[in-house]
Specification:
Blueprint: H1 14-25, H2 31-50, E1 64-72, E2 75-82, H3 89-96, E3 130-138, E4 146-151, E5 156-160, E6 168-175, H4 185-196, E7 202-207, E8 213-214, H5 220-223, H6 229-240, E9 246-252, E10 257-263, E11 276-280, E12 283-289, E13 300-306, H7 322-345, H8 347-356, H9 358-365, H10 369-375, E14 380-383, E15 386-389, H11 390-396, E16 399-402, H12 406-418, E17 422-424, H13 431-441, E18 446-449, H14 464-481, E19 487-491, E20 500-503, H15 506-519, H16 523-533, E21 542-546, H17 550-557, H18 562-579, H19 586-614
Parallel strand pairs: 1-7, 11-13, 16-17, 16-18, 19-21
Antiparallel strand pairs: 1-2, 2-6, 3-4, 3-6, 4-5, 7-8, 9-10, 10-13, 11-12, 14-15, 20-21
Helix pairs in contact: 7-8, 7-10, 8-9, 9-10, 14-18, 15-16, 18-19
């Protein structure tokens, strides 16, 4: 014979629940102040929305919360009083004494969307700092005032009180031994300001024997798009801790969100995490969330207040849901629209912003065609003619070229300048995608990729007679540069003042860098680097002589002077390296001294001989 199963209620270990809340759900015990403030504000909101009135009220639902600091038998005490809806005895037994019970909170008006707390467990956070919670309350619906007392051992009592009590509730905590720091006046003030200074209700801190401190502050600057600029900027300085460069109002109807995006006064460091502040129904949810704005908006920090976003269970971050995703998109669109409007109405102001945050501007522009059209002319770029705005560059060069890397640009820049070609430096963050996007979108600008190997397509080739005349020099040069691991070419190109250049593509540059590192490293690391060079194609730089240059012409005429030609070629090779901004290897740096010394010796010897002959 088997017995029928019977339903049983779970037994809850209150100590275990409190430990779970303190150590895992919440960031720390200090959140008890937020929960006390939040419960008080919810009670005020519920009373105001219900229209309830009752004994002891002052003709309607008032709107103040008071934190009183005192001492009892030498122990610190916090008492939080609100003029909210209050509780009857039955309500206290139903909701205060059953952990997490929220299914019937709407029966007393405490489950509305307008309320901050919806989980019914926040009051338990007080057990992290106190062994006992006492709630004295008078319900707006009438009845006797009551006192509910909960203890950390899991027991509780509720009793009727004689006399009268103002409508609302007072929660009293006595500090547990070892937790006094959480009841310190400075600590309490700092955290109340952090959590609740943007609440619509007046919040007071009343240290015993001291002047009361008003915690809440006017925050109209966040929600009023025509608020005075000085008020908007002052609020940003106070709450975000920096002096903003500029500020833009934000709106996102889907999340009932409003706020301000404050422009950072300097470019943030790479990979810096966003640190935006978001307040839900006036209460701080996070002071460093990165979920409010798109990634491209890393040049601003924002303050946002919302009635429609959903906090996580800990109420210390925003819940990832469709509302948040849509709000993020709308806030980003709002910021973009403000900047587009600025481009049309105050280009100088936008120019200042772009100069400071051009990387972010470029990141946005390459993904947003409309934004690119508006800001591209203010973006700074590096060209063969120096640093300038993109607008100035494309006015000079409606048809231009750009490189993939900075090293290629350095090699090509002198040649491009001499030939009147507009050349843009690729290799800097976002620049190549920006050039491509601008070339695609703008009707009056075209840019194409230019690579080192394209150098020779525009160079003049030698005639048969020139090749025959220069052949002895080519043989002498080829013999000398064999140890440099480069290939030789002879062309005619502008500027004529450049006797030689060294052209190397990405592969050749990488191989040269690896070999330089290998030669300067200890044996073990040298072997490691050597194994890396084994996988790189054996691409060689091209050492190109300019036959149009007078120095090269003179070398042709003295090609039979092997020693002088050798040292001259060495100097031309080293000069070409330096012109291309290629670092000299150890052997090349040493060669520079010996070659110059040899040429100087020849020059001084020739001068001495001439002087003696004249005598």
């Amino acid at each position: 014979m088997t017995s029928s199963p019977t339903d049983q209620n779970f037994s809850v270990d209150l100590h275990g629940v409190v430990e779970l809340l303190s150590n895992h759900l919440y960031s720390g015990p200090q959140v008890f102040l937020r929960e006390l403030l939040q419960n008080a504000v919810d009670a005020l909101t519920a009373r105001a929305e219900s229209g309830a009135d009752g004994p002891g009220s002052a003709g309607g639902a008032a709107g103040e919360v008071s934190f009183q600091l005192s001492r009892l038998e030498g122990r610190p005490v916090i008492s939080v009083t609100d003029e909210g809806l209050g509780l009857t005895r039955e309500e206290a037994e139903m909701f205060m004494s059953v952990i997490g019970r929220s299914s019937k909170r709407d029966e007393i008006g405490m489950a509305r969307e307008s309320l901050i707390g919806q989980f019914g467990v926040g009051i338990l956070s007080c057990f992290a700092v106190s062994d006992e919670i006492t709630v004295t309350s008078q319900s707006a619906s009438g009845g006797q005032p009551i006192r509910w007392t909960g203890r950390a051992d899991g027991t509780w009592t509720v009793e009727d009180l004689a006399g009268s009590h103002a409508v609302g509730a007072t929660v009293t905590l006595v500090a547990r031994h070892g937790e006094d720091r959480f009841f310190d006046g400075g600590f309490v003030e700092r955290h109340l300001r952090m959590y609740g200074e943007l609440l619509d209700h007046r919040v007071w801190l009343r240290p015993e024997g001291q002047t009361p401190i008003l915690i809440s502050r006017d925050h109209d600057a966040l929600t009023n798009p025509v608020a005075p600029v000085d008020e908007v900027m002052a609020l940003g300085r106070d709450l975000l801790g920096f002096d903003p460069l500029d500020a833009f109002p934000l709106q996102a109807p889907v999340g009932q969100a409003q706020g301000v995006a404050y422009v950072l006064p300097h470019e943030p460091a790479p990979n810096t995490k966003r640190a935006d502040r978001v307040y839900v129904k006036g209460m701080l949810v996070s002071a460093e969330t990165d979920r409010l704005l798109p990634d491209w908006a890393f040049f601003v920090r924002c303050l946002v207040v919302s009635d429609g976003l959903h906090p996580t269970a800990s109420r210390e971050e925003l819940h990832h849901d469709e509302v948040l995703a849509d709000t993020r998109d709308q806030l980003g669109e709002s910021l973009r629209a403000q900047m587009m409007r600025l481009a049309e109405t105050d280009s100088a102001r936008l120019g200042t912003l772009v100069q400071t945050h051009h990387l972010a501007m470029k990141a946005l522009a390459i993904h947003d065609d409309d934004f690119l059209r508006l800001v591209v002319d203010w973006l700074p770029i590096e060209s063969a003619e120096g640093r300038m705005s993109f607008g100035e560059f494309r006015t000079r060069h409606p048809v231009a070229g750009f490189t993939n890397t900075v090293d290629e640009f350095r090699q090509l820049a002198p040649i491009a300048t001499a030939q009147g070609m507009g050349l843009l430096a690729g290799g800097y963050t976002h620049d190549v995608p920006l050039f491509v996007a601008a070339s695609r979108l703008l009707d009056d600008f075209t840019a194409d990729l230019v690579q080192v190997e394209d150098l020779f397509t525009g160079f003049g080739v030698l005639t048969e007679a020139e090749e025959a005349a220069i052949a002895p020099l080519v043989d002498a040069v080829a013999e000398r540069i064999e140890s440099f691991d480069v290939e030789l070419a002879v062309r005619r190109f502008e500027p004529h003042e450049t006797p030689a250049l060294l052209a190397m593509d990405d592969t050749a540059f990488r191989l040269r860098s690896l070999r330089r590192t290998q030669s300067e490293s200890a044996d073990l690391f040298s072997n490691i680097v050597g194994s890396m060079t084994a996988g790189v194609d054996d691409a060689k730089p091209i050492f190109c002589l300019n036959i149009a240059n007078p120095i090269v012409g003179r070398l042709v005429r003295i090609a039979d002077d092997q020693a002088l030609v050798t040292h001259s070629v060495e100097v031309l090779y080293l000069q070409a390296l330096l012109m291309g901004h290629h670092p000299l290897q150890v052997s090349e740096a040493a060669l520079l001294n010996t070659s110059l010394s040899a040429i100087l010796d020849r020059a001084t010897d020739a001068g001495a001989g001439t002087s003696e002959a004249g005598e």
